[in-house]
Automatic annotation (TrEMBL):
Domain CAAX prenyl protease 2/Lysostaphin resistance protein A-like: 143-232
Single GO molecular function: hydrolase activity
EC number, as in UniProt: 3.4.-.-
Keywords tagged on the record: Hydrolase, Membrane, Transmembrane, Transmembrane helix
Descriptive protein name: CPBP family intramembrane glutamic endopeptidase
UniProt lineage: Bacteria, Pseudomonadati, Pseudomonadota, Alphaproteobacteria, Sphingomonadales
InterPro entries: CAAX_protease, Rce1/LyrA-like_dom
Amino acid sequence: MQNVAIVTLVVILGLIGWLSLKDARDYQEFKNAQDEDSRLAFYRRWTIYPMLLFGFGGAALLAWLGRTDALTGLPSEFAAAAARFSSAQEPAAAATSETMLGMALGMTLGLVVTFYIWRARLRAARRPIGDIEALLPRTRREVLAAIPLSINAGISEEIFFRAALPMLAFVATGSVPLSFAISIVSFGIAHWYQGFKGVLATTAMGALFAYLYLSSGSLLKPILIHILIDLVALAIRPAWSIRMNRKLVSSQKEVAL
C-alpha cells in the first residue's frame, strides 16, 4: 500500500503544480475581462472546479484510503501531533453539554470580535496581500457570485488540504510533520495565481488552518474560519466598497444639481 501511496502522492502533487500554472494563466485572462458576464462565468468556474477536484476528490481519496473518519474527527495517526497543543479537544464521547455550550459561546465571541476588527479594516481600505485585486467583485451580482465561491473554498480546500492530502502523505511517508508540511506548502502553491506574496500569505494561512484542525480535533473549526476569511475578502469588503462608492456618486450628483 505504501508504494501505491507514494506514486499517488507524486501524481497528485504534480497535478497541483499543473493546476496552479493553469489557474495563473486563467487569472491573467480574467484580469482582461471587463464585461460582467465574463467575470461571472469565471466565478462560477472557480466554484465548480474546486468543488469537484478538492471537495469530492478529497472525499474520494479518503474513501480509497479507508479513512473517511478524517471527515468527522481527528485520525488516530495525527493524535500524537494534536497532543502537543495545549488546546487539544477532548474526545467527542466525553464531551458534555457544558463543554459544547462553552465552545458555542467562545466561537460566538470570536466571531463578534472578528466582525469589529474587520469592520475597522474595511473602513481603512488597506491593500490586500497578494495579487487578488482583480478577483474582488465590482458589482452586486459579482458579490453574490463570490459568496458560494467563498463557502465552497472553505469546505473543499479544507477537506483536501487538511484531511485527505495529509493522510495520503502519511501513508506514503509515515511522518506526520512531513505530511502536514507537504499539505501546507501545496496549499500555498495552489494559490500561485496570487503571486509570490500571495503564496507566502496562503502558506501561512495553511499553517494556521492545520493548527486549528489539530488543536480542535475536527475540520469544522478551520472550515468556518476559512469561510469567514474568504467571505470578508471576497464579499463583505467589496460590498461595503460598492455601497460607499454609490453613496459618493449620489452625493456628487446632488451637489452638481
